Amino acid sequence: MVVLEQKRFEEIEEMTKGYNRLLVLGCETCAAISFAGGQRQVAEIASAIRIARKRSGREGEVLEDSIARQCDPEFVDLIADRVAGSDAVLSLACGAGVQLLAERFSDKVILPGCNTMSLGVTEALGVWSEKCMACGDCILWRTGGICPVTRCPKGLLNGPCGGASEGKCEVLKDQPCAWQEIYHALKRLNMLHYLKQKAQVKDWRIHPGRVVREDLRGGGRDDF
Amino acid sequence: MTFREALESGKFVVTAEVGPGKGTDVEHLLKDAAIIKDRVDAINVTDLQSSVMRLGSMAFCHLLTDMGIDPVFQLTCRDRNRLALQSDLLSAWVLGIRNVLALTGDHPVLGDHPGAKPVFDLDSVSLLEVIGKLNSGFDMAGNALKGAPDFLAGAVVNPGADNDAALDLQIMKMEKKIEAGAKFFQTQGIYDLDMFEKFMKRVEGFGTKVLGGVILLKSVGMARFMNRNVAGVFVPEPVIQELKKAEDKSEASINIAVRLVKGMKDLCHGVHIMALGWESKIPPVLDAAGL
Fold first, then answer.
1. Beta strands A114-124; B184-189: pairing state
2. pLDDT confidence of B144, banded at 50, 70, 90?
3. What count of other Cβ atoms lies within 10 Å of the Cβ of residue A152?
4. In whole angstroms, what is the distance from residue A128 CA to residue A120 CA?
5. What is the Cα A60 distance to its own chain's centre?
6. Of A57, A129, B18, B180, which is least surrounded by CB within 10 A?
């Protein structure tokens, strides 16, 4: 999932105050799971904005809505009328969702209500941790299912630096050294030989990434 | 004799280390280097040590070559991508620098510009491979060079890794570094010769040169600070007490270093003395150790 964190309210207030009719738009997938931009957070933010506006004597209507996925044009286009009826949209989706809205509704101001933090997992209620940097060249099969590109702050590919202390990372002092985790996992799986192989240097060309699947682009492939 | 010649001659080599400061004032560093010039085979110059922005390693290495000192250019992957690393290596060569120590580098967050973008495009192992490639007349992309360097490349290893997994990983990475072209290793500071002896037993078949690290202990506070904050450095309590009880701290510090250097003469191929501004203590240490 994409892990999101709501922006500080002061920043949200600052960016939204110039727009009379404001649509607060949630996203029911990752943003909802992150407790940052689902229906409930839409209602909370909308009422906070209303209260702030009332206090400062400002006018304006704050509208609420939410769609299944702001990163998919199929769902985004469903709310075209609501967007048309507002001056600006405060999107509670990730950066991908905000940008797709800005692309589909290019004459509207689209504002980000969340910060996009990472590709991660729910560790516990209220705790999410980053697991993947979308490098485009997955090596997890050689690293015991633990990603050094993401979980080692230096992204080292050939083993650890000398900085770990009592198994903890020198940079993220409360986290285990990713390479020691990899070592234990590979040992458990009887795959330590992978640690002895020199890693290929990464090809960092892939950002911004674009995946094109010809077989899905209508008509299918004609070469077989 | 150059550092390479000294290393290849099989003699017990001695290297030291200087760290440029923040700013353009190099006078005291040049003085420090002059004090030890005739007593060491090479002087390392650190590359923005501890991720603190300072005068660069390459420029100061060049100043050392002007003094007739053979420098070891410390090069980290922290601040340069593969283009800059290769270009800096070529630049260093034309400035008369012949030895490189390939390092990963500390994370910027530990230094004085914690918001800096960490690069780490390559790591110490891939950097060593690139040095080998440049030496053979090609860049990393396979393009031919017009004029190639011939660096002596080295690397670091931390024998004091504090658990079995960490030590196994250090040794596996050391093997990769040798395979990638490292001809010598300088270690993190060592205070426990028994531990170091065990480490040397494990790596004796590797056929590489190991220079044991010796950090001059300036105070009890420094020893305790390193025990808390510097991974792989552990000053045992008896050593701390020896320094604490001594009336003449600098004499005690020299005595501790002499013991370590003497012990290492039987264990490895040289010493790398990190004096941290106490360069004037290096000649007495070497005298007493018979070097």
1. unpaired
2. very high
3. 25
4. 6
5. 31
6. A57
Q: Do the bridges between strand B209-215 and strand B270-274 make them parallel or antiparallel, or are there none, so unpaired?
A: parallel
Q: Provide the chain A residues 129-168 that lie in CB contact (below 8 A) with chain B.
A: 153-167
Strands (E), chain B: 13-18, 42-45, 71-76, 99-103, 152-157, 184-189, 209-215, 270-274
Report the mean per-residue pLDDT for chain B: 97
> What does residue B242 show for φ and ψ, rounded to 5 degrees?
-60, -40
- State the CATH architecture for A2-118: 3-Layer(aba) Sandwich (3.40)
Comparing CB atoms, the residue among B109, B172, B232 nearest residue A159 is B172
pLDDT in tens, A119-159: 999 999 999 999 999 999 999 999 999 999 999 999 999 99
How big is chain A by its Cα radius of gyration, in Å?
A: 22
Q: Give the tens place of pLDDT for each residue, A43-63.
A: 999 999 999 999 999 889 999
pLDDT of res. B200:
98
Quickly tell me which residue has 């940079």 as its tokens: A171
Tokens of B235: 């000053």
- Residues from chain B that touch A179, judged by Cβ atoms under 8 A, are 169
Q: How far is A176 from chain B (nearest CA, A)?
A: 12
**Would an 8 Å CB–CB cutoff place B118 in contact with chain A?**
yes
Provide the domain count of chain B. 1
Contact assessment for residue A49 and residue A16, using Cβ atoms and an 8 Å cutoff? yes
Distance from CA of B134 to the nearest CA of A (A): 16
Smallest Cβ distance to A195: which of B122, B123, B172? B172
How open is the CA angle A197-A203-A208, to the nearest 5 degrees?
Answer: 145
Summarised one tens digit per residue, pLDDT across range B43-89 is 999 999 999 999 999 999 999 999 999 999 999 999 999 999 999 99
Residue B74: domain span: 3-288
Rounded-to-10 torsion of CA A176, A179, A181, A186: 180
Domain CATH number, residue B264:
3.20.20.220
Across B107-125, average pLDDT: 97
Among A151, A152, A156, A200, pick the best mutation site for testing chain B contact (most B Cβ within 10 A): A156
Question: Which amino acid is present at B231?
Answer: A
Six-digit token pair at B10?
């099989």
In whole angstroms, what is the distance from residue A185 CA to residue A143 CA? 8
Checking if the pLDDT of A224 tops 50, the result is: no
Q: What's the CA gap between A135 and A207, in Å, rounded? A: 8
Q: And the tokens for B179?
A: 């395979």
Between positions 96 and 135 of A, the ones with CB within 8 A of B are none
